[in-house]
Amino acid sequence: MVYFTDNSRCKEFEVSKSSWGEMTDDFMFRQCDFKEFKGVKISQKHMYAYAMFDNHPYLSLRLSKTNFS
Question: How far, in Å, are 1, 3, 27, 37, 56 from residue 21 at the CA level?
Answer without folding.
Answer: 10, 15, 7, 28, 19
